[in-house]
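Case study 2.
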Amino acid sequence: MELGKEYFGPLWRFIANDEITDVDYNGREIWLTNIYNERYRVNQSYVEENLTSAFVEQFTQRIANVVSRQFNKRYPELEAETSELRVTIVHESVARSGRSISIRKTPPIIRLTPKKALEEHYCSRDILALLINCVLADMNIIFCGMPGIGKTECVKFFSRYIPGNRRVITIEDTMELRYSVTNPGKDCIELRVDGDVFSYADAIKTSLRLNPHWLMLSEARSKEVRYLLESWSTGVCGMTTLHTDDVRNIPDRILNMLESRVDADRLENDIYQSVDVGVLIRKRQNEQNMTYRYIDQVCFFLRERGQNRILMAVQDGKLILKEFPAVVLRRFDRAQIMDPLESKLLERELEVDKEGKG
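Prediction:
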């Protein structure tokens, strides 16, 4: 589905601005978020003059007609998706501040690059090399953080390092990873879930019959996480995201998604066997009062001799692990990675970027 300029009216100026990632209208004001993770309010006179009740109603009806959905007190949420946008509208019967509109851009690009990661203090060189090597060593990685912190962008960036001859299957309800577009020439199947018709559980089960090497779930939200862990336990590699503010909370967060306590007791050990790496993304302000995102924590999940443990590798954005345990080194060794903190692939990319500048 595509929505033209005429659908968005006074909102189009924000849609067309490449630096704006989110447009949020709360019934009274428009708030914008940009690629620098800055959030600010649009001049109120512009809002009052242009976002009239007539426009909001017209915009809503156009979206409802495009997706053939009702929108009223009985059906108070409306969603639509284009190749680069996700539109969500909430009815004033439940959004007491007024009819609310949220527009998120989901362009098929990867904004993060190795050069930007280093220059913008997203992470240090050794941490970047470590995570690239974790991908090359076929480790299962969960990226976590609070909503809007850039977890999906992190998945998009590190998934670039999956070798091109490995089949990747992505599973999403809203198409944001865009793996086939951002990784042209690589083997990929993109599955889209659709409520009860084709659920996350259905998609995960189906993917296992499609000869995957990597299985990427855009976000682990509910009971489907059990099927994801089962797929990873078969030897399929994977990445996903979830909401939590500490990598050490990942096991509990997963257990809380399960339907029953019986499942939780049985799967706790499976988490430590199936999940290899946890990565936490945070944001903070620098001395110039600019907000930036960074990798705050990295950990390894280990199960050895019947015991589960979490080994912190990065804390407060700094590498703190002095010596990698033998079980982790064996994983790197199988991928012919002699030093987990060095990456020839990363160095080549940085050199190419440097030569391009020259």
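The chain is about 35% helix and 25% strand.
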